[in-house]
Amino acid sequence: MAVLITDSCINCDACIEECPATAIVSADESPLENGEYTYVKPEKCIECVDAAVPKCADVCPTEDCIVWDMPYIAEYNDYFVFSDRYVIREHKKKGLMSPDVNPMPWRESIPMEQREMNVSVGQTLKLYN
């Protein structure tokens, strides 16, 4: 994982169809108890590491709506598992699909400071690519 959709989302759902990992769901399908806007499942997000820009951010009509979050790797397991931002999917056989169990690819070129501050994907990619 590494992208997060903020509360500036207008729920247009343009990003849902573009996500190659099917990691994005509408507000109605959000696993959050009071999900009000489009949600990214961190256990599925691949940051579109094989593309120049994450596809969700490329089609989003709302500037700065999609921001970087921490990488979905074991080092940040507690961050994701105990966060009120996320509800991690539970697999019938494998259990909780936490970063310890299911780490995801991430853009190492994005500085951790930018991720910690949830800097806009578009803004950061202009600086580092």
Properties at a glance:
globular; metal-binding; 129 residues; Alpha-Beta Plaits; iron; 4Fe4S_Fe_S_CS; two-stranded antiparallel ribbon; 4Fe4S_Fe-S-bd; alpha+beta; 4Fe-4S ferredoxin-type domain-containing protein
CATH architecture: 2-Layer Sandwich
CATH topology: Alpha-Beta Plaits
- What is the mean predicted local confidence, pLDDT? 92
Helix share of residues? 10-25%
Uncertain ranges:
none
Beta content? 5-15%
For the largest sheet, list the strands in their spatial order: 1-4
Helix count, DSSP H or I runs of 4 or more residues: 5
* Computed structural class: alpha+beta
What is the overall silhouette? globular
Q: How many angstroms separate the termini?
A: 19 Å
**Name of the CATH first level:** Alpha Beta
Report the radius of gyration as a whole number of Å.
Answer: 14 Å
Tell me the total number of β-strands.
6
- What is the multimeric organization of the chains shown? single chain
Listing every helix as H and every strand as E from the N terminus to the C terminus, the arrangement reads EHEEHEHEEHH
Overall structural domain count:
1
Largest sheet: 2 strands, antiparallel
Domain 4Fe-4S ferredoxin-type: 1-29, 36-71
GO molecular function, one term: iron-sulfur cluster binding
Keywords: Iron, Iron-sulfur, Metal-binding
Pfam families: Fer4_7
